[in-house]
Specification:
With 439 residues, the chain is an alpha/beta fold. It has nine helices and 20 strands. The chain has a nine-stranded mixed β-sheet, sandwiched between helices. Helix 1 crosses helix 4 and helix 4 runs parallel beside helix 9.
Length: 439
Amino acid sequence: MDRMTQTADRLLNRISVSTCSFTTAAEAIRTLEDQGFRELRLSGSEWQAEPGGNYYINVNDSTVYAFSIGKRFDCTRADGPGQMLRLALAHTDHPCLYVKSRPEVVSHGYGKLNTEIYGGPILNTWLDRPLSAAGKVILKTDSTFEPEVRIIDMKKPLFTIPNLAIHLNRDVNKGVELNRQTDMMPVACVGGNEVDEQFFMQMLSRRMNVSVSEILDYELYLYNCDAGDVIGFQEDMISAPRLDNITSVEACLHGICGSGRENGINGVVLFDNEEIGSRTRQGADSVLLSMVVEKLYAALGAGEEEAKTAFVNGFALSLDVAHGFHPNKADKADPTNENPLGKGVVIKRSSAQNYVTNSEAVGSMMMLMENADIPYQKFASRSDATQGGTLGAIASKYLPMKIVDMGVPVLAMHSSRELMAVADQVSLERVVREFFLEE
């Protein structure tokens, strides 16, 4: 099996099991444990860590930190280039539909689900899709402050949001604005007057093998359960849900599990809640990352000053998808910075620092990629267009280190199904691997 096929298969397998931030984190932890990483509990007062060790931290079941410590790591030489702290950052969540409390809506013989929009999805791409649910469910126990937590994935089509027939809306092909409350309710069941008013909770209780009264709360998300596919005459593209940002999650895990640097510390952080601004304790817009790194350095015998020095001299990659050049919408691209699929990893630039890249950091990554013969491109948005943002720009408030924003170019970003080139995933994974190996 060639490299392109192996990479595509691994990515599609990762996408199929990474259906929400909770399942993405759980599968990432499973991968890390299979590679010998040991858990450090966030609530632990004293961590036991040593050079040559591999460790991970689970935060709220949706964010994962992982660190690989070089065998010759020396905390007293944190200012040396070989001892550099290197991080790769990505996010576990994606735009989707969130299931509200008391979600059942029974009307005219249909059972519908009351949802709200999570992040910024292209709403009409969620219509006529097979949808399933995944997330976290909280159950009663005998201990008030220790409820049972279960991560679940229904793993089969349960819902759909049907379009209105063109016969009933002759202007549908002129564009239809969807109402987030009334138009985005998935149909779950039919049955005349026999639809149970608690049909969702009854289904959830059966799935959990508990009574409805035992379910205290949940954080459940609907996802497109279409399988991803390798497509194209040359089988060189991937069409799949959740390319944003499982492409980066897979690259981070592939890199950290293959890191062999004997000096310094390599780390990946898979944050939750990027799609809604990262303003949570498990998101990038918190002091948690700096706190975790400080605790890790303390466990390795470093003092507060050594930890601060590690931040200042560190280097991070903020990995998220980039806008690819759309062949049918050429006018949407910057006139001198087109980023077609298949031409390599994209380095994102913005004078407003929506992307946190600076020229010195870019120069280092350009040299790394050129030395390894890894193709890359640079992105700039049109000057009359709006810009998105990444967790790198947010995390930089707490990380006084060099950071480069980069990722694979995609089309149909934030659609329920996106498009990319297989070759670009190969390039991204090579970048992270080289970044973690370069002494």
